[in-house]
Amino acid sequence: MKMKLTQSIRRYLMSKTVVRSALQILVAQKGMNEKRNITNREIAQATGLSPNTVGTWMSPANEIKHVHSDVIVALCNWVPCDISDLLYLDSIEQ
Predict the structure, then answer these.
(1) What pLDDT score was predicted for residue 4?
(2) Are 56 and 62 in contact, with CB atoms under 8 Å apart?
(3) Cys bridge to 81: 19, 42, 56, 85, which one at CB 3.0-4.6 A?
C-alpha cells in the first residue's frame, strides 16, 4: 500500500534542525538599555572569550555546532540571561 506524503510531512523529512545563537539580539537589547553601542571586542574582553568565538556567536546565520559550557556560562553571566534566551533551534530545509 502506497502512502501519499503531505507537503508538511515531506518538508519535515527534508529538513534538519540546527542550534543557533540569539546573542546579537540580546546584545542589542543590552545596548539599548544602557544607551550605548557594544562591540564584539568589548564582549570578548568582558567574558574572557576569544574575538572569533564572540563573532561566531554574534551571527544568527551561523550554526552553533559545538556548545561549550564555559562559553554559555560566560555569555549568560555577562548579558545576563538564561540558556533558553541564548540558544534556539532552527529547522532548515536540506
Answers:
(1) 64
(2) yes
(3) 85
CATH fold for the domain made of 17-93: 434 Repressor (Amino-terminal Domain) (1.10.260)
Taking only the tens place, the pLDDT of each residue in 39-85 is 999 999 999 999 999 999 999 889 999 889 999 999 999 999 999 99
Measured between alpha carbons, how far is residue 83 from residues 54, 80, 94 in Å?
Answer: 16, 10, 27
Which one, of 56, 80, 46, lies nearest residue 38 by Cα? 46
* Cβ proximity of 66 and 7 under 8 Å: no
pTM over 0.70: yes
The domain spans of the chain are 17-93
DSSP E strand stretches across the chain = 15-21, 87-93
Write down the residue that cell numbers 530545509 correspond to.
93
CA 51 to CA 61: how far, in whole Å?
17
